[in-house]
Amino acid sequence: MDRRRFLATAVAGIAGPFAGVACAGRQGGAKPVSGYGPLRATRDLRDGKVRLHLPDGFSYRSFNAVGDTFSDGSPVPGRHDGMAAFPGPRDTVFLVRNHEVNGPVGAFGDKDRAYDPMAGGGTATLQVTRHGEVLSSRPSLTGTMLNCSGGPMPWNAWVSCEETVNGPDVGDDSTGGDNSKLTRRHGYIFEVPVSGTATARPIRSAGRFAHESAAFDPASGALYLTEDCYHFPSGFYRYLPPRHPLKAGRLLDGGRLQMLAVEGMPRADLSAGRRPGTTYATTWVDIDDPDPRFTGRPPNGEAVQAVGRQGRAAGAAIFARLEGAVHHQGTVYFVSTQGGATAPGDTPPGGFGDGRGQVWAYETWSGRLRLVYESPRSAALDLPDNVTVSPRGTLVLCEDGDGANHLRGLTRRGEIFDFCRLAAVQGDPGAEFAGTTFGPGGHTLYVNVQSTRGASFAIWGPWQRGAF
Predict the structure, then answer these.
(1) What is the model's pTM?
(2) Residues 6+ apart with CB under 8 A from 134
């Protein structure tokens, strides 16, 4: 999206596309709608295998899977995650995609350009057609770790987020291996230009914590950030750079990090169940030490809370696992993966938070926080993760649940529907959707599947027939 369109979108319709949900206020939103119709096993145009279940009329092609090669011949790493689409020449699309690789497994791509040559995460940049045919592909940020999600920036860049605080100064996490082998501290955000290769310089003032997503507000220049702590409370942050990024042409370090709080309710616990449409007035508290340095290698569980505890000590609100975030028409929509009440018959998912998911809306122009949707049961919505917005203003939610994972739509009226179901991945029951993003013009929905044979997917069809 170019700068002029991005700014116009930011000020259009100050009520926001989900304002009607506040009036409806019904538990779990409205009755589910049919969306695009029943889901049927659909063959992948790449090789004829069934990987997705889609409504009639929709097609897809998978591409750039784990173990494939980039254009330079180097292998494609695993753990495909957050992603954004940018316009390319002659009706093509540039995709910038995260790889959520943990541990001191060595950098992919050119190790001389890696932030930490021992870390295996980062980003890849691909040029593809609207039907998922790969024209070129390359590593674009390497040597980072657990790059989970992030967000697109209107100056033709992607911000990639590390969901960890691993480093040689921190004790090992439960899945990452020996942190003493790492050469750099992790837990930062990095800017990745669509053209060229990232500088691999972290924006340290934006915090060292378990970053998940980033959503940019062009009106104020603030970058809104989510935090995903599995076992501990999470927070909603904003980073105020020293100069407006649309004037600087990039995201500058040296700004101020803040954490959201509810007015009159210090340390408000918003992770529990509540009625959709519930609205709060908010304020922001400063984080005095956004980039903590540790001595004595404290336990990983202590280090990952160092920034959030500062905010909560000043009254910041508590959420359960904040993951995907997207900016649309002056509002940041963000997902609390395990927020909400536990429905009868559902089992708490483990970790912090007992619900099956919430969707929140923060109005950047008014400071109001509103609960848009809370899952009434896992069959309606099961642990939402990444989120994007369709050309019509419908949210597209990626599930990371315990059963068959879906792409689900959440309409402006609070109605939720199934659009796509992931076929069972043999030997990988934990396979999930991630990185959903519409290409320019809305012709194609690109999405990743994170699994042992994860890949990217291009989906297209009769969008005009339903809410997307």
Answers:
(1) 0.94
(2) 63, 64, 126, 127, 128
